[in-house]
Amino acid sequence: MVNLVIMRHGEAEPLSTNDSQRQLTTRGQHDVNQMALWLQRHYAAFDWIWTSPYLRTRQTAELMLAKQAPFSQLEVIPELVPDGDAGLFKAYFDARVSDKPDARVLLVSHMPLVSFLVEAFTKPEQAPVFSTAQLACIDYRPEMGGRLLERLSPQELALLSV
């Protein structure tokens, strides 16, 4: 069962003086919409979508939320920034889902944190590099750990659709 999906934000504008305010490009919006449709077709709706406070991740999360059930809730989590601590976030996650172990959560964040989150929720030495809008689907149980089930990028999704 996939109950945790870790996603990198869609393609954003080039680096500027204020990194936290970079917006998604048109391509970034398209890629995120494609990933949202794929998740909608293949997995049950999320209870929570947690996102970094950066503009590009909030835009990504809002596009993902648009393809979810009415009960799905969007929350901004300050710890999901690019230099966030994956170990500390995992402890926070475990505490948040302790009373709802079957919760389905989508995390929208940045490189390098998304890579370190996959490693923290699965096993050491498994920190994949993410392209923009790529996601990792994980079967995770706080008491047992997690297992990476699949990874998918917009480019791979386009190949599957051909």
What does this structure look like?
The chain has 162 residues and is an alpha/beta fold. It is 36% helix and 20% strand. It is built from five helices and six strands. The chain has helices at residues 26-42, 55-66, 86-97, 113-121, 154-161; strands spanning 4-8, 48-51, 73-76, 105-109, 135-141, 145-152. β5 (135-141) and β6 (145-152) form a beta hairpin. The longest helix is centred in the N-terminal third of the chain and has 17 residues, at 26-42. It is globular, with a radius of gyration of 14 Å. It starts with a strand and ends with a helix. The model has no long low-confidence stretch (mean pLDDT 94).
Name its key features:
162 residues, alpha/beta, 5 helices, 6-stranded mixed sheet
The succession of helices and strands, N to C, reads EHEHEHEHEEH
User: How many E strands?
Assistant: 6
Fraction of residues in β-strands: 15-25%
Helix run count = 5
Q: Order of strands side by side in the largest beta sheet?
A: 3-2-4-1-5-6
Q: Compute the average pLDDT.
A: 94
Structural class by secondary-structure content: alpha/beta
Give the oligomeric state of the chains in this entry, treating copies of one chain as homo and distinct chains as hetero.
Answer: single chain
Radius of gyration from the alpha-carbon trace, in angstroms: 14 Å
| Coarse shape | globular
Helix content: 25-40%
User: Could you list the spans in which at least 5 consecutive residues all have pLDDT below 50?
Assistant: none
- How far the N terminus sits from the C terminus, by CA atoms, comes to 27 Å
| Biggest sheet architecture | 6 strands, mixed
